[in-house]
């Protein structure tokens, strides 16, 4: 995990995020910077894992004939994905 955190911090967060912030909290190495890096890695990993399993479930398990029902105003799986992505960042802090 230390190597992944170091690589993410050095090659992704530092050039694209930390270079624009002038604060002593983002100076290397500090605890808030490491906490944000771990949170970022876990959030992106959670999103990628959810989207990949949702796509596999949609492709192989979901009954696509249910989408043609005229009483369904929009595809319900889109609402489920958007609901998850919205609440991921809220519940990630608990």
In short:
It contains 3 helices and no strands. The protein is mostly helical and 94 residues long.
Low-confidence stretches at least 5 residues in length (pLDDT < 50)? none
Per the principal axes of the C-alpha atoms, what is the gross shape? elongated
Largest sheet: none
Report mean pLDDT, rounded to a whole number.
82
Which oligomeric state applies? single chain
Spell out the helices and strands N to C. Answer: HHH
**Tally of separate helices:** 3
Radius of gyration: 19 Å
Distance from first to last alpha carbon = 21 Å
Total number of distinct structural domains: 1
Number of strands: 0
Report on the architecture of this protein.
The chain has 94 residues and is mainly alpha-helical. The protein has one domain. The protein is built from three helices and no strands. It has helices at 2-16, 31-60, 76-91. The longest helix has 30 residues, at 31-60. The chain is elongated.
